[in-house]
Amino acid sequence: MKAGRSLLVGVATAAGLTLGWVVARAQVSRHRSDLFHLRPVRRLAALSYLEGQPTPDTLHLLRDYLVWENHPILRRKASQIVRRFEATIA
After folding, report:
1. 39 Cβ partners below 8 Å, 6+ apart?
2. φ and ψ at 54, to 5 degrees?
3. What CA–CA distance (Å, rounded) separates 48 from 78?
4. Tens of pLDDT along 27-72?
5. In this structure, how many other beta carbons lie within 10 angstroms of the beta carbon of residue 19?
6. From CA 36, how far away is CA 50, in angstroms rounded?
7. Contact call for residues 58 and 85 (beta carbons, < 8 A)
8. What string of H, E and C letters represents the secondary structure of 16-32?
């Protein structure tokens, strides 16, 4: 009986981790696409989310974004994030 319960707990844990990973990847993908959205508010929300993701991939994405973005407030926020990531990652 205990072995069956342990197996069930192990399978449930693996399923939960897998589901969490899939949901996290979908959320990151959605926010990355919103970074280049037509509406500035969506871009701001994407920047705010990506600010908590200090990875080399995010840093590269934000550098591309700085070349593309025309809005001065959003450029300033992205530039601040890039500088912080450069200090953290490099």
Report:
1. none
2. -75, 80
3. 9
4. 666 666 789 999 999 999 899 989 988 999 999 999 999 999 999 9
5. 10
6. 13
7. yes
8. HHHHHHHHHHHHHHHHH
